[in-house]
Amino acid sequence: MSGRFLSGRGIPLASLMLVRQPVRLAVALAGISFAGILMFMQLGFRDGLFDASVTVHRLFDADIVLISPRSTSSVSMAGFPRRRLVQTMALPEVEGITPVHWNLLLWRNPKTRGTRSILALGFEPGDPLFVDPTLAPKAQVLTQKGRVLFDEKSRPEFGPVADWFRAGRTVESEISGQRVRVAGLIELGSSFGADGNLLTSSETFLELLPNTPPGSIEVGLVRLQQGTDAEAVVEKLNALLPEDVTVLTKQGFIDFEQNYWRTSTSIGFIFTLGAAMGFVVGCVIVYQVLYSDVSDHLPEYATLMAMGYKLRTLLGVVVREGLLLALFGYLPAYAAGQGLYLLVRSATALPVAMDFSRAMTVFSMILVMCMASAGLAMRRLVDADPAEIF
Amino acid sequence: MTVLSHPAQHQGADVVSTVKIENLSHSYGRGSMRRQVLQSVDLQIAAGEVVLLTGPSGCGKTTLLTLIGALRQVQQGDVLVFGQQLQGAGRGQRQLLRRRIGMIFQGHNLLRCLTAEQNVQMGADLLEGFSYRGRRDQAREWLRAVGLEDHLSKLPQDLSGGQKQRVAIARALAARPQLLLADEPTAALDSGTGREVVELLKRLAREQACSVLMVTHDPRILDVADRLVKMEDGRLLQAVE
Fold it and tell me: Are β-strands A147-151 and A94-108 bridged in parallel, bridged antiparallel, or unpaired?
């Protein structure tokens, strides 16, 4: 018998019970959608934060990255001796290296004259820096002193640099009190740590930061021969190099940054808690709806039992109600989530997007929510005593 | 009406009474709160027989009905329905037995969210070996048999009391029961409608060779019975022919 409700060859009791009470159904769907949207937002922000914190990290053309053990994150990178990077060349697997200066500098908005912290990377214009091949030709202009490449995806607070540059204007501004000229545009993207980025040559970088100790760099990129096991080389380098440098794979470098935001700040916790609250709110609403639905129909369920329907069949009706609520509550939540992500992207330039795994996570949360509520509401159904209906 | 004919349904029904009750006692509560509702009840209902059960309220009629309907665990004595012992019967066995027993309640107890046709089909759905379409057609035929062919897609809230009770009869009969238990089916109806409904019930049960046990207070319908049984204080009085 129970199969009849599932195969759709019987009367679709679950959907009829829901549909014939449109107000309650609307409340239930609104509640579930709301919980779903809340979860999408919180998880989206959380993942967006972690993704955004490594926007630049991902772009580097490197297999292995050297940093100082005193560095804690992209916003506080410490220097280490450049010769450690050169030492890696001793290994035959190493194909090339790029020393990179990395620091947050004060950029003056050319329009409003206000200053703001911007992430500046300094490198030798001839060296490979990013995987993106379009950078190399642009980087040639950096050989001239006082030139920078500006990230057009930087937040608008840095000024209308990209617009002015495209319009053919000469865009000049100040970094740390020194005049620089924007010599080109690149596309990187802002992150939680840095609202904007710019590239310059090592020479210009050192002029902007004259107190940098000679021979000190913040990041060392190491490229390996094709097909080399990066993990094994990291082991070798760890043995070879002294303690004043940390050797990471590129993924390790990305993890290092994400780990900082995850563990050393309360951001991850806060957003996860927010998502959990959405889950709990949804649970309460769905449980309330299903419980009162079962209570209202208790005499009818008892009648069906008196007619000879199995308890299992009737439990199946409640489960189906839960499934239907989950499905039709999720769809509007998904659509609203897409819309809100779009809004967040345009308002904050954070890379918040609907990805499959999050869509599935939220769907399974909603499913668990509805099934758990259905399970609890079913306990009421067991109370349906067919002997009481006479 | 091909649907309503039942060849070979009652093989051996002459040998075994539909209902056979011996020395049945039942009580509610425990200790000092214990209250005896049935005392040494003996009752037999033959196949196709229409029996009316009357008596003052609180005399145990409904309890007897729920025990025969396999809705309650039998405490003491023997209750055999279609030859099956209900004393000590498990949940699953009682559930299977209930599928062969039609029930009509004081209130109509229709499912509010289903149309008249769907309600009747909930009864027909208990039958095995029919397609969805077949079961739906049977539901329609039963509604035609109770004179509601024009109200197939109405919800219970849009039907009158008599119409609802007729839907309930159609639903009970759609499962093709061999025994029909009715608890004051005319209680919510005016006398004319009540009479109509009971006569319809009797006629259709007859066509199905279905035994009927009906509890009623209504003196105007007593004459439909083959046999009248009176009950008082948990005991059956002498049967009145």
Answer: unpaired
Contact A309 B123 (CB under 8 A): no
- What's this model's pTM, rounded to 2 decimal places? 0.73
B11-40: per-residue pLDDT in tens?
A: 444 456 889 999 999 998 888 888 888 999
| Token reading at B49 | 């027989």
As a whole number of angstroms, the distance between CA A11 and CA B110 comes to 14
Tokens 């009752």 belong to B43
Closest residue to B111, CB basis, from A4, A19, A300 = A300
Quick one: pLDDT at residue A299? Answer: 84
Average pLDDT estimate for A77-97? 93
Which residues on chain A are in Cβ contact (under 8 Å) with B57? none
- How far is Cα B42 from Cα B234, in angstroms, rounded to an integer? 11
Q: Is A41 exposed, middle or buried (0-12, 13-18, 19+ CB in 10 A)?
A: buried
Q: How many CB pairs under 8 A join A and B?
A: 78
pLDDT score, position A9: 63
DSSP state of B107: S
Among B53, B57, B63, B71, the residue to mutate for chain A (most A Cβ within 10 A): B71
What is the C-alpha end-to-end distance of chain A, expressed in Å?
25
CA B136 to chain centre: 22
Minimum-distance CB partner of B114 among A11, A307, A310: A11
| One-character DSSP codes across A42-55 | HHHHHHHHHHHTTH
| A chain contacts of residue B172, beta-carbon cutoff 8 Å | 307
Amino acid letter at B6? Answer: H
SS (H, E, C) A245-298: CEEEEHHHHHHHHHHHHHHCCCHHHHHHHHHHHHHHHHHHHHHHHHHHHHHHCH
Q: Report chain A residues touching chain B, CB-CB < 8 A.
A: 1, 4, 9-11, 13, 16-17, 19-21, 297, 299-300, 303-311, 386-387, 389-390
